[in-house]
Amino acid sequence: MVMNVLNSHRCGQILSRNALKLLSRGCTTKVNDPAKEPMAQSSEEAIVVEKENNITLIGINRPKVRNAIDSMTGIKLSAAIADFENDPKADVGVLHGIGGSFCSGYDLSELSQNPQQTQSIVHNPEGVMGPTRRMIRKPLVCAITGYCVAGGLELALMCDLRVMEENSVLGFYNRRFGVPLVDGGTVRLPALIGLSRALDLILTGRTVTAKEALEIGLVNRVVAVGAGLGQAYNLAMSIAKYPQLCIRHDRDAAYYGTFSAQSLEEALEREASSTTSELLQEAKEGADKFRQGIGRGGSFSGVKERKLADWEKAEMTHESKL
Predict the structure, then answer these.
(1) Smallest Cα–Cα separation from 75: which of 126, 116, 31, 7?
(2) Are 210 and 219 in contact (CB under 8 A)?
(3) What is the pLDDT of residue 5?
């Protein structure tokens, strides 16, 4: 049940009361005054996970360093995303930054202070910034606010879709310091925007504005300042409302055809052979709904049955007895 309405200038969308509470931290790109900030967050709070219905929000919470990720935070982010993947009640995730920026990349202070650990950090099988060296098993939307640069941009590329606030900036700023891309940037970016454009960004390390990012296909939505997380949440909801076996099959087939298949024929074979009996049963249920008139004329209402909270069920039962 819709409980509250966000201010149109801030997030501009209808969300539940719980969603408003958990989105309030991310719906701003104002940089906090360090003198007024509380003590630094403990390592246990570097990653904040919150859930609203079948959406999981995963927040990077190191605002004093613009959410730069050190090795411990990268491990915690990998664990949080793995938990999301393994949660049967979670269908879509939203990755975001708390405190004004999405992520400014790898925390270079750790690299300068502990150079002897560099090799072990770089060769972490999951990745330095998080689980960037594998495919995430469920759809993940990135809410880009403030700075999304260096390894932070690689994190954004790890996600399926990207929602960017109009004053945010992208770029491989690590180029200035001779820090290489080791979290999938050189692999995913050419697949998204083409090799020529990718090389332009990789080799020059220049800033990319929201307007250019949208034009070249680097991001999927550009929204008003302060609306990034709210709009990313709504985009996640627009995916989560559909039958999920079909969503995951088609998503997996698209990734396989893009990154793994050696030929068109192999990609097409994988698309067909991965159609399971469970998926066909889900499709049959959808066909039955269509025969009943649901979804005709391009309507999306009623496609997926909405799960009611216990209090809503109790209220409906009470009203039916009146």
Answers:
(1) 126
(2) yes
(3) 28
